[in-house]
Write a structure and sequence with these properties.
69% of the residues lie in helices and 1% in strands. It has 367 residues and is an all-alpha fold. α1 runs antiparallel to α4, α5 packs across α8 and α11 runs antiparallel to α12. The protein is globular and about 65 Å long. InterPro entries: CHAD_dom, CHAD_dom_sf.
């Protein structure tokens, strides 16, 4: 399959893009980082995540009693944490793409710290979304609607009335395991936000908001070759994917090694995850060159959405497989988890098919 190179926007600047554009972008992202951090602290860093850690039945009981005093603060705190991760990712990705134009020692020291922060803050949300995805899939596969606890509370009937015994127990097992993981991730996030390591990162970002450590050559350097290199890395990584196979629906490629006893992630998923990261770096590089108001490449947008679904389904399948390895679970529970695992691997395959279909389309941009 011939490689499909990415085309720059038609309204790209005629002259060279100097280090001033890079410095302006980094300062803007650093300012957004500090604004999100301030908002997160003002709304209570523990408020939003604590609300997520509560059982669903407890949260619904509070809402029925009219106890919504901290709801707005919780939502704002969650949004602030999301914005904090977003700006940290953009700063880290930009430092990676344009590292020849930045102070090497400072850049290499900042990137892993920003990656640590973004990853630490993202885990709690990831566990919550994974649990919701898996419980929703269990209900869909069982022909039920809503969560088992919700069905029991709303109708007064046991959850087993809408789910098979195996599916209900599988949902309860997943809820215990992922809620525990989410609680631990919440504690880790709180510890991280109060650590000296985080304060060092925040201090470095505060300095970045006012002064970007560019190299002397950055003043006259053109940013476009480095952005083009990021685009080429993405194109090469996509060319290495089995897109011909992914272009055929129901090819079952994502189910290969589905019964393997190896607890390691599927090796075939790694190249797709790498493409997702490279697509993100390419998008950040375009933001540096053309700003956030540049025309949106619909093809790349949809391809990125497909890769996000691929990541989510792959991680959900791994969680179902891990739950199925729990010692001394009932055969019906293990069977339900096996069906759930296969369902999520089919979702992985569907996401690959969607990516292939979007990637092969001609570039379409919206103004």
């Amino acid at each position: 399959m011939a490689q499909q190179h990415l085309e720059p926007p038609t309204d790209s600047p005629a002259g060279p893009m100097s280090g001033d554009a890079l410095a302006g972008y980094l300062r803007a992202q650093a300012t957004e980082f500090l604004r999100s951090l301030r908002q997160h602290r003002e709304n209570g860093s523990d408020a939003g995540t604590t609300a997520r850690a509560k059982p669903r039945t407890e949260s619904r009981a509070e809402s029925r009693d009219g106890s919504r005093a901290g709801e707005n603060g919780s939502v704002e705190s969650v949004d602030a944490a999301r914005a904090l991760r977003r700006s940290a990712r953009r700063i880290s990705g930009t430092l990676h793409t344009f590292r020849p134009l930045l102070d090497a020692e400072w850049s290499e020291g900042m990137r892993p710290e920003l990656a640590w922060l973004s990853g630490t803050l993202a885990r709690e949300h990831a566990y919550a979304a994974r649990l919701e995805r898996l419980i929703g899939a269990l209900n869909r596969l069982s022909g039920a609607a809503g969560f088992p606890a919700q069905a029991a509370q709303d109708t007064g009937a046991p959850a087993k009335g809408s789910l098979t015994v195996g599916a209900a127990k599988a949902g309860a097992l997943l809820d215990r395991q992922l809620t525990l993981a989410r609680t631990r991730a919440h504690s880790a996030a709180l510890q991280a936000l109060g650590s000296s390591r985080f304060h060092a990162v925040a201090d470095s970002v505060a300095v970045l908001a006012s002064e970007v450590p560019l190299t002397p050559a950055a003043a006259t350097a053109d940013l476009r070759p480095l952005a083009a290199a990021a685009s080429d890395r993405l194109t090469d990584a996509v060319a290495a994917l089995p897109l011909v196979t992914a272009g055929h629906p129901y090819n079952a490629e994502a189910l290969v090694h589905g019964l393997s006893a190896d607890t390691a992630p599927h090796p075939q998923d790694a190249p797709w995850h790498q493409v997702r990261l490279l697509l993100r770096l390419h998008r950040y590089a375009c933001e540096v060159l053309y700003g956030e108001d540049a025309p949106i490449d619909v093809r790349l947008l949809r391809a990125g959405q497909a890769l996000n679904r691929h990541r989510d389904a792959a991680e959900a399948a791994a969680a179902a497989a891990a739950a199925a390895r729990t010692p001394r679970i009932a055969p019906a529970t293990a069977y339900a988890l096996g069906v759930l695992h296969a369902d999520q691997r089919h979702e992985v395959e569907a996401a690959r098919f969607a990516f292939q279909q979007n990637w092969q389309k001609e570039t379409v941009r919206t103004p």
